[in-house]
Amino acid sequence: MDVVVARCAGLDVHRDTVVATVRTPAGKGRRRHQDTRTFTTTQTRLAELAGWLGEHGVTLVGMEATGVYWKPVFYALEDRFECWLLNAQHLHNVPGRKTDVADSAWICQLVEHGLVRPSFVPPPEIRRLRDLTRLRKSQIDERTRAVQRLEKVMQDAGIKLTSVASQAYSKSARAMLEALLAGVTDPAALAELAKARLRSKIPELREAMANRFQVDHHGALVAQLLAHIDVLDEAVAALDARVIQQCVPFADIIELVDTIPGVARRTAEALVAECGIDMTRFATAGHLASWAGICPGNNASGGKRRSGHTRPGSRWLRQALTEAAWAVARSKGTYFSSHHAQILGRRGKTKALGATRHDLLVAYYHVVRDRVPFQDLGADWLARRYSVEHRTARLVRQLEALGHTVTLQSVN
Question: What CA–CA distance (Å, rounded) separates 83 from 72?
Fold first, then answer.
């Protein structure tokens, strides 16, 4: 088998150790020299690993993506060497031959012969933004769970606020809960604390706020949950400020992404953090969708097609696209909502949601690649695409491409 990379290294990465194998030319002919060493993953030993690889003249380093343990190794080497992060599913060896040394040698041989492709690793500034947006999303999810726990306590106390109000936690709900903590249990007095549009439902609130709230029990739970929500609100606000600061170099791109229907500021920041802004890493929008796991897989054998489940991708990207898809599906007069409604009627909610996610990701690819605002195709695009005029123009173009001159004459 031909050698594609003359001097390469394969790393089998673990939490505490990394086993490195280097393969280099050994004199004349096709013979290869192989050397293997084991290093710990502290920064001092990783510097020694970099020096050892440099002594062998290594030009390409391949390593398996192992949890988060690949990150310190990758970051320690990326400034000096071209590093490839490899998908573990592409590195299966013959069963019964698995050791750390054998794994590192196998990775090195795959890299040596060009049998693997690197995974997408964004540049450092995008990685820092990604850390912030993912932590912010985790804190927002934790706040949602805290509000759900608060709703459980209210139901246990007989308070049926969510039967009248649309949300379990709002300014009105916060005022009522603080009044309950202060010892106010009169339903009429609690209902009068409603604010804004909720004041139109005061009669219903009087009935819903009748309770058996016990300050010594329910009050202790509510006080803890309210304090937790306050802490999370402060954390999310602080992360928002850090994300805005980190996004200053990408401000123009985020503004362009924000023009996509259903994509708000936070979603735009999450998309940039997960996909990056360099679309040359993906040959087409289909390649980006495949990398993200937002398209069906292929599963065919013997002429029979089986279920092609979507491959696993970034769950953070999928969550952001799902939120945007639900938002745009409820919009009016857009291509996304029209396409979603068409698929919803034929194939159901899940397929329609998946198609809308794919549409949004394709739109992101073209907006970021071309640096242009989003241009909606229109709610009638599907009807126009399959109209008589459109089909006629397409067939004429095909005939002209074959060297024919076409003259159209109506049959009427």
Answer: 12
**Torsion angle of alpha carbons 45, 50, 56, 61, nearest 10°?**
120
Which residue type occupies 40? T
Which pLDDT does position 274 carry in this prediction? Answer: 94
Could you give the CA distance from residue 347 to residue 355 in angstroms, rounded to a whole number? Answer: 11
Contact status, residue 289 vs residue 295, Cβ threshold 8 Å: yes
Can you read off the two tokens belonging to residue 283?
């040959």
CA distance 124 to 132: 13
Supply the DSSP symbol for 314: -
Q: Which stretches in the chain have pLDDT values below 50?
A: none
If you search the block for the tokens 């993506």, which residue do you land on?
Answer: 65
Amino acid 138 reads: S
pLDDT for res 2: 83
- Looking at residue 8, its pLDDT comes to 94
User: How confident is the model over 261-290, as pLDDT tens digits?
Assistant: 999 999 999 999 999 999 999 999 999 999
Q: Give the torsion through C-alpha atoms of 184, 189, 191, 196, to 10 deg.
A: -110
Q: Distance between alpha carbon 157 and the CA centroid of its chain, in Å? A: 39
Neighbour-count burial for 206-244, b at 16+ CB within 10 Å, e otherwise:
bebbbbebeeeebbebbeebbebbeebeebbeebeebbe
Give the N- to C-terminal CA distance of the chain in Å, as an integer: 66
Using N-to-C axis directions, what is the helix angle for 285-292 and 265-275, rounded to 10°?
90
Contact 279, 288 (CB under 8 A): yes
DSSP string, 71-137: HHHHHHHTTTSEEEEE-GGG----TT---HHHHHHHHHHHHHTT---PPP---HHHHHHHHHHHHHH
Name the nearest CA neighbour of 320 among 280, 265, 239. Answer: 265
How far apart CA 121 and CA 77 sit, in angstroms, is: 13
Instruction: Report pLDDT for 412.
Output: 65
For the beta sheet containing 8-13, the strands, ordered from the edge strand earlier in sequence to the opposite edge, are 32-40, 17-25, 8-13, 60-64, 82-86
What pLDDT is recorded for position 98? 85
370: Cβ contacts below 8 Å, ≥ 6 apart = none
pTM to 2 decimals? Answer: 0.85
